[in-house]
């Protein structure tokens, strides 16, 4: 297999190879419930301690469903990443400059990304990861940054850390589809079920209000979703229909789904 096509899938919360990382919470008293602070720290330990033969690493999440075979979207020194509309370095320049001084270049050098999904060379991630930890900690310790960036603080930290090392990403909108806002999954590689999908029986989105029909992963935090979830009503986007069909396909093929 060519080296550029060899991947190692690393879940953000549960790293592959059954690597058990030392919890950052025990060493940092200021995490204040921000569990995502463990994400960059876990990667630092994993890269230091695990034996990784692969040249490229795919950073992905447990709520990613693969729609199509994923090629290596990166190119040499340019990792591939998905652009998030809510990561806005330019609009937050006053805050960003605390961590990315003017001598490092324009704020436009910072990509509108998080660390997932990302395909990146292992050697590049080894350089970025410790800086990613340090920037995340500094951001969390700064009240203005913490309030402004909130839950996506660590995503900004990855983007800033990458730029500090002169690494810019190839931005691929086709990397991922996020229903209900993205209406189709065609020609996309990953389906990310991060948002709740709420609709009335006319097929109209009722986002922010529990719908007559809904699929939201937050409804299943205490136990797995049931088998054979009902399909959404007519008129609901293809992306939502595909999401439910793929969840149903998985649960129907996993043994003892509802008892384990």
Q: If you had to describe this structure to a student in words, what would you say it looks like?
A:
- The strands form three sheets. Strands 1-2-5-4-6 form a five-stranded mixed β-sheet. It has a three-stranded mixed β-sheet with strand order 3-8-7, covered by helices on one side.
- The protein is globular, with a radius of gyration of 19 Å.
- The chain contains six helices and ten strands, in the order βαβββαβαααβββββα.
- The protein is 27% helix and 12% strand.
- It has two domains: 3-174, no CATH class; 196-253, no CATH class.
- It is an alpha/beta fold.
- β1, α1 and β2 (56-60) form a beta-alpha-beta unit.
- α1 (38-49) packs antiparallel against α3 and α3 packs across α5 (153-164).
- It has helices at 38-49, 93-96, 122-141, 143-149, 153-164, 238-253; strands at 9-11, 56-60, 64-66, 80-81, 118-121, 170-171, 176-177, 190-192, 197-199, 213-215.
């Amino acid at each position: 297999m060519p080296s550029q096509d060899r991947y190692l899938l690393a879940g953000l919360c549960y790293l592959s190879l059954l690597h058990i990382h030392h919890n950052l919470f025990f060493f940092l008293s200021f995490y204040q419930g921000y569990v995502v602070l463990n994400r960059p720290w876990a990667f630092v330990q994993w890269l230091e301690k695990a034996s990784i033969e692969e040249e490229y690493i795919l950073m992905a999440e447990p709520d990613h469903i693969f729609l199509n075979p994923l090629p290596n979207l990166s190119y040499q020194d340019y990792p591939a990443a998905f652009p998030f509309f809510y990561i806005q370095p330019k609009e937050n320049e006053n805050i960003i400059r605390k961590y990315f001084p003017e001598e490092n270049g324009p704020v436009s050098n910072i990509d509108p990304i998080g660390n997932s999904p990302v395909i990146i060379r292992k050697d590049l991630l080894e350089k970025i990861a410790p800086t990613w930890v340090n920037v995340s900690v500094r951001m969390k310790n700064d009240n203005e940054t913490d309030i402004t960036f909130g839950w996506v603080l660590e995503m900004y930290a990855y983007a800033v850390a990458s730029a500090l090392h002169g690494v810019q990403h190839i931005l691929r909108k086709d990397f991922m589809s996020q229903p209900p806002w993205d209406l189709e999954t065609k020609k996309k590689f990953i389906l990310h079920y991060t948002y709740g999908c709420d609709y009335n029986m006319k097929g109209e989105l009722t986002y922010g209000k529990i719908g007559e029909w809904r699929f939201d992963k937050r409804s299943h935090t205490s136990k797995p979703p049931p088998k054979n979830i009902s399909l959404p009503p007519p008129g609901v986007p293809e992306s939502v229909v595909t999401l439910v069909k793929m969840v149903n396909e998985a649960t129907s093929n996993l043994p003892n789904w509802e008892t384990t």
